[in-house]
Amino acid sequence: MPDLYTQQKLAIQGQFAIGTLADYRGQKTALSGTVKVIKHERKGGVYIEADGVTALVSPFALTPVATVRPRGAGKRPEAPQNGQRLAKLIRNGVEVVPDQKAGKADVLLDRLRQIGRPTEPPAPVAATPPPVTPQRLTAPLGKANVDRFLFGWLKHFRRDTSHAMRQAVIDGFGDLPAYLNNHVPALPGLHAYRATIYYVAAVELADPSRLPPPAEIPPLVSARFGVSEEAVAIHLKWMRARLEADHARYAYVAKLHPAPVGAAE
Hints:
This protein is of the alpha+beta class. Helix content is about 40%, strand content about 10%. A hairpin with a 5-residue loop joins strand 2 (about 35-40) and strand 3 (about 45-50). The N and C termini lie far apart (about 115 Å). About 15% of the residues are buried.
């Protein structure tokens, strides 16, 4: 006499007539989805088939889907009406929709293609961000505003950078466009702008021939920093006057107090 488990399988086995479709959810992942019942096992098991793969499974892993009469066993089922199918065919969680006009081989090929196909669309490719446009800088006009804008900055700039370093930049300054491209940050701020004003004014005092004509300088600096040409011209004039006055004062002090002969330079 069969044991209790076998009796339960035999009782459920009868729900899956040969030729019917069933939904299989079990350990045989290659058969997961809609399968066809092709044979019964005497101990209650059910032989199933899908896409040419056959396996013996427990009826507990099957759910009835639809009935298809075996060939030659009575009247054939009527064709679906209004484009409806007898049952949905599921393969790995994806519904398989065979082409009604295609042949049997094409339908099987379509079902094979569905196996392993991802159910989620691929993640969109991130768009390349547009190049960053340098922000236009606001530089003040008016005598009092220009004094405040440049005087305090020049004092701190001289304190934080050695004379030798500043002089090295001035001595090597021979191409204003190259300086604007190579020494100025990609997104310059007001500090880089004021430093450019300082170096251009210092080179004008040292050797004006190393700079473009005076009329061409404000447009070049304006295009690089986004400051108006009018402001550039005013700031250059202020810096030249300031450097001339400072150099004159330094020369006067040096004349009154000359360095001792043999003193280290």
